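Researcher: Can you fold this with calcium ion in place?
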Amino acid sequence: MANVLLVEDDATIRTALMRGLRDRGHAVSSAPTALEGLRLAVAERPDLVVLDLGLPDLDGTEMLRMLRAVSRVPVIVATARDGDTEMVRLLDAGADDYVVKPFSAAQLDARVRAVLRRTADSRTDSSVTVGHLRLDPRSREAVLGGAPLDLTPREFDLLHYLAVRSGEVVTKRELLTEVWQVPYGGADKTVDVHLSWLRRKLGETAQEPRYLQTVRGVGVKLVEPS
Ligand code: CA
C-alpha cells in the first residue's frame, strides 16, 4: 500500500502501530527521535509520515516545520492534546491530518489511506502553479508568464514532476526512476543535460537560477523565484 515512516518515542506504541500497519499491507520504518525521523524522511522518501508530537529531542511542531522546509511528504500528527486551537496550529504548521491518542492501528490506517487518496488526486490531475509557471498535466501545456513553453514530452514530465514537489529536493536517482523509468543504473548526466535544456527554456542559467535550484550533492528543486 504505502511506505510509512512512524516517528514515535514510546517503544510499546511504536511496536503495536508498526505491526498494525504492516498487517494492513504497509511497509513501515520507524524512528524514536525527531532528528532520526528527519534523517529518514529525507533518506527514505516515505509516502507518508506519522509524527508523534511528544518527542524527547524536539517539539513535534518544531520538527514539522523543519520537515516542511525540506519535504512536502504528507504528515499525520499524533497528539495527546485535543482541542480546536491545537488542531488549527498543527494544520497551519503543515500537518495534513491528525489523530488524537489513544488511537488504534485501524483508525490510523483509515487516516493514512484518506490522506494518500487526497494527495494522489491533487498530484496527478490538477494543474500546478509555481510562481508564474503553470503546468496542466491533462492538456500537457506549460505556460510561463502567460507565454506557452515549447517542451518535449520528457521535459514536460520532468518539469511536472518537480513542480508538484516544489520546494522539495528531488535526487537525480529519483528522477531517473520516476521520470525516465530507469529502476537502477542510468546516468546522472542524462538528468543534467535535460535540466540544462529546461533552464534555457525557462530563461535561466545554472549560474543564475530562478526556478530550478541545484542542491549540490543532493539533487534539484523547483522553487518560486524570490
Ligand atoms: Ca511520545
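Model: Folded with calcium ion in place. The pocket of calcium ion is lined by residues 9-10, 52, 54-55 (CB under 6 Å).
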